[in-house]
Amino acid sequence: AHYSARSxxxxxxxxxxxxxxxxxxxxxxxxxxxxxIAIGDxxxxxxxxxxxxxxxxxxxxxxxxxLVQSTAPSSLVIQNFVIELxxxxxxxxxxxxxxxxxxxxxxxxxxxxxxxxxxxxxxYFDLCQCTNSVSDKFKYFITYLRQNCIMNKCDxxxxxxxxxxxxxxxxxxxxx
Length: 176
Known about the structure:
Number of helices: 6
Shape: elongated
Distance between the termini: 15 Å
Strand order of the largest sheet: 1-2-3-4
Largest sheet: 4 strands, antiparallel
Strand content: 25-35%
Structural class: alpha+beta
Number of domains: 1
Radius of gyration: 19 Å
CATH topology: Secreted effector protein pipB2 fold
């Protein structure tokens, strides 16, 4: 699966029986760590929704359900997040677009996403409690690497694994 390389402590909810489409919530590690909500697929397509957009999306559930159940192609825009009903090979399909990214979902997959509302909110707010610790740990790791003049990526990963606090609940996932 193609999850975010920078995302840690992530939770992934399968949107389809094969997990080909998923909803991912995780902390984007960096000096200003923040929680990301993303809709993605195993082909590497991924739309990151700001929490405000996710909330507005959930609030527009009734409008979205009407859109998806309509017989004519139409669209709805929520804070630059475009939800369109399109036909692909004469089959109704939901196209989600944000900036230059897009994903296609079956209407049933779209409806299932609404059922995850409480799970997403719970995980989102749990992860928000960890963002300061993640930012602090990230800054510590960067400072350590700079002070020790470590420039090679493989060396950096090995050093970070050595100095990592094994008792910490913050797992830094190093992507090679």
